[in-house]
Amino acid sequence: MSKPSTLGGACIIASVCVGAGMLGLPSAGAGAWTLWSVIAISVTMIMMTLSGWLLLEALKHYDFKSSFNTVAKDVLSKKVNFINNLSLYFVGGILLYAYISTSGDIFSGMLGVSSELASVLFVALCSAFVLHSTRAVDRISIVLILFMMISFALGISGLASQISVPTLFSVSETETSYSAYALALLPVALTSFGYHHSVSTMRDYYQDEHRAKKAILAGTAIALTFYLVWVICIFGNLPREAFGPVVTAGGGIDALLSALTNGIDSTSIKQALNIFSIAAVVSSFIGVGLGVFDYLADFFGFEDTRSGRLKTWAVTFLPPLVFSLIAPFGFVTAIGLAGAAATIWACIIPAMLAKALRQRVPAQEGFVVPGGSLTINVVIAFGVLTAAFHLLAMVNVLPVFRG
After folding, report:
1. Which CATH number fits domain 6-394: 1.10.3720.10, 2.60.40.3500, 1.20.1740.10, 2.160.10.10?
2. pLDDT class for 58, splitting at 50, 70, 90?
3. Which of 179, 198, 223, 261 is the most buried (most CB within 10 A)?
């Protein structure tokens, strides 16, 4: 069997990221607008790449097929490990929940069925790739990324040709700076790079931490490129004040595309953007599903057999499906909640694991994240501050853009 390509792993990482970011960042970044959104997203990409590498460094001390849970259970106290497990499952579950709810809105009109039935069909079809194998997810991820790139290029080329520079860099008459809004954007940006439940999957896939490192960096770089181009084109076409109805509607992709395409005459651009949004939802659902699937298989000790994989499939996909049918709510709200919880397992815990294992095994061999203790401390600080910013925004200490 040929060795898996770096591109395949990068596409898995990018597909995990891109759905959440593409669907949530424009609405969440409307307050911060162009400059501060670009800064917040770029800084988050750097921090989240480093935190993923720190987790990869921690995993090198364990056998292949060991997950985040295996390392945390060995290194951390039971109480801290319980919090880590809870936050990891919460984030993965709420992301799956958000994608399933969004799929119902997107596909119900296309299929002519209720949103509930559309969600059930979406889960049944897309989760089948995860149930089959990581290789199947690799293959479908590449196809979906290609669809996203083509439809993205077609849609964005049309949007880019209509960018209004004054709109892109507009300044409010009543606000002197948008910088404070960037702080509230960070939890959504963090979620947009929340691939960490797939780090152990990448290590197992390549059987080599250095190759997994390259795939992670390539995947987050692909995601960052998509995000920046997307946000700039959206903000250059849709005035800041026009985001009010989108935010009120929960910030979902359907509301965003509706507001965006109202000012676009080209049918081809509208169709390209719709195809892109569908590919983004599907690819991110499958990518997140794979990470949660592997994590729960290790957590519950399910074997890699047909019956074991069916059990893992059930605990991975059925709870978020049921909750999405019972109580769907705003997409950006869900992503923000996921971001607040993700600071624990996507920033703080990976850095703590790497620090503890460096102390346990002073003579480090193999893959080591550069920067020494400074990298660890910066990643932890970023996670703590991002969680704090989300809480401050919830209690209206930080400004929250309402339109």
Report:
1. 1.20.1740.10
2. very high
3. 198
